[in-house]
Amino acid sequence: MLRTSLLASVALTPFMFVPALAQDAFALDEIIVSGSLSPVAEGQTGATVEVLQSDDIATSDTSLINRLDRLPGVSSSANGGVGSSTTIRIRGLGPQYVGVRLDGIDITDPASLRPEFNFGGLLSSGLGRVEVLKGSQSALYGSEAIAGVVNITSFTPEADGFSGLVSLETGSYGTNTGSTSVGYRGERGFVALSYGTFATDGFSSRTQDGPDPDVTEDDGFSQSTVNVTGEYALTDSLSVGTALFYRDGSVDYDLSRADPIGFINSEEQGVRLYATWVFDGVTNTFSYSYFDNNRDVQTRPFVPSVPALNRPLAIENYRGTRRNLSYLATADLNGSMVLNLGADYTEEDYDSTTGSRIVATEDNTSINAELLYSPSGDVDISTALRYDDNSSFGGKVTGRLAGVWRPSDDLAVRGVIGTGFRAPSLNERFGPFGANPDLEPEESLSLELGVEQTFARGFIKATVFQTEIDNLIDYVSAYVQVAGTSTSRGIEVSGEYALSGTMNLFGNYTYTDARDEENARRVRVPLHDLVLGVDSDFTGRFSGTMDVRFVADALASRFAPADNKVGTYTVVGAGLSYDMNDMTQAYLRIENLFDEDYETAGGYNTPGRSAFFGVRAEF
User: Fold this and answer.
1) Is 101 contained in some domain?
2) Measured between alpha carbons, how far is 492 from 511 in angstroms, rounded to an integer?
3) Half-sphere exposure of 250 toward its Cβ, with a 13 Å CA cutoff?
4) Cα radius of gyration (the chain)
5) Category of 553 on φ-ψ map: left (φ > 0), alpha (ψ -120 to 50) or beta
6) Which of 26, 336, 437, 565 gives 20 to 30 Å between its CA and that of 12?
7) 557 φ, ψ to 5°?
8) Residues 92, 522: contact at Cβ < 8 Å?
9) Domain count for the chain
């Protein structure tokens, strides 16, 4: 369940379960996968990493973004309900600065306007664990890691033998979802399969600000997902593994006054094959991954006096593919030092048809090194350096220095300084809308300093952060490089306190002052973001939770209508669960309890009061 590094805010969802939290909340031996090139214990990384475990994901919220949105330093905006275009921000920096991995596969879309991942259709079903790594991490992950990285893994069996879970849920807006995950773990490996299906009638994504009455029709969404993972030890020193995923979805959307009615059919698929060979004390990992995202965008423009279904249909296609080869060697040098050496080759393709066809490709080769050093039992230091050679831009060097000092068992001080870069996307350079082939990479510098104090009944931690970005890419009738420096600075504070063995208080607060190159505040970034909540185990079978999220002083973009509702809002969520037996649980979740009317993207609706009932069984 929840980790102390995760901070209580991970629990700030309309639903969670207290007994496991009370048992595991303050364990300090959590292994962090994303904070270094090789896994390290949470207490030994200077980086800030928030962790969501499988139970936290599976039992709460239909979409993963609703869970992430409650973490300190994380916010999002959506152009409607589930399935709509949804962007994540980490410490005030947008999705083009956030790397996203699923089972080791880079799933940012090579064919999107900017290199980013759309969280709107990423549901909770089939997911096992999520890590959110903050700060400029290009020394580990290359481009698109200026704000951080979201590292996701799918369901994996933990106990020996067969295990799995099945869940069914129904609720507001004609929403029905079901998922099943099954797996087997043996002495030499494991195999796992997850399948999920989702459908909702939805609500009108766009507020009616144009002449077309059809703009307020319900915007539905349906999707099917499949995840397969497996690993097998061929010998004591050689193991092989694979990860596959597939998503197929369709969403209605309201784009604009000119093109108010449309829908997007999308198909995503990815595969990763890897082998790990231990030779002479060195662990060697070889991997190949492939990702493909294919989207059809169909619209029916507004034509006065012509019914919607009789209007001409315009179809655009966008397809992006990515192939990656990588190698990583990990060696324990003397018990206090671990050396990681890696090499990576990535090739991306872009193919769009918007009247005419545009095809583009580029590749990137990189080498990197990381040294993990523990000079004493209370100090851990990591240094990383990476060189990227892009076929279009040439060389780029990035680095990171991170450390943690534990003056006592219950106190930790962390610090990180890192540089990063974001290469312009193929769409920004060659796409159909304002392309500029002369764009150069953006560059960043980030710093953070944090302290974490644990107590017998809880913890509190605080982190101050700042990121500067130069050589920015912006859209001003076309994509251009702009002078000046963009900054994002602030503080994250979080904590948890056990009032008793059955009741916990939790909360977090983030202050983010994000500004562009002209020192104007960045749009859609809340200045203040506060979450407070309580969860309790009423009896041996009943448990419940309630949380309040207060968001203040967000600004709408220049494209928002004048009467938009972006700004300040308060949303309350509540949940109740009942353990029918040791394996089966029924629950009721209420979102937006007091029916707050607000927007995270100007001119696009958010869900009103909604209720969901579900049953979840583990075996």
Assistant:
1) yes
2) 7
3) 5
4) 24
5) left
6) 565
7) -75, 170
8) yes
9) 1
Start-to-end CA span in the chain (Å):
18
- Tens digits of per-residue pLDDT, 266-323? 999 999 999 999 999 999 999 999 999 999 988 777 677 776 666 777 788 999 999 9
User: The tokens of 173 are what?
Assistant: 């807006």
Q: Which domain holds residue 295?
A: 8-618
Who contacts 135 (Cβ-Cβ below 8 Å, separation ≥6)?
47, 48, 91, 147, 148, 416, 418, 446, 448, 465, 467
Give the contacts of 284 (CB within 8 A, at least 6 positions apart): 276, 277, 278, 327, 328, 329
108 domain-assigned: yes
User: 235 CB contacts (<8 Å, ≥6 apart)?
Assistant: none
Residues 79-116 pLDDT 10s: 999 999 999 999 999 999 999 999 999 999 999 988 89
List, in sequence order, every residue forming a beta bridge with 247; answer none if it has no partner.
Answer: 225, 268
The three-class DSSP label of residue 147 is coil
> Would 1 be classed as within a structural domain?
no
Which position has the token pair 């796409």?
Answer: 431
Task: Name the DSSP letter for residue 56.
Answer: H
At 331, list the tokens. Answer: 């060696």
The 10 Å CB-count burial string (b at 16+, else e) for 444-481 is bbbbbebebebeeebbbbbbebbbebebbbeeeeebee
Find out whether 332 and 281 touch, Cβ atoms under 8 Å. Answer: yes
The identity of residue 381, as a single letter, is I
Alpha helices (H) in 175-330, listed in sequence order? none
DSSP code of 45? Answer: -
The domain that contains 168 carries what CATH number? 2.40.170.20
d(CA 152, CA 56): 13
What span, in angstroms and rounded, lies between the C-alpha atoms of 171 and 148? 34
- β-bridge pairing 569-579 and 542-552: antiparallel
Six-digit token string for 452: 């974490």
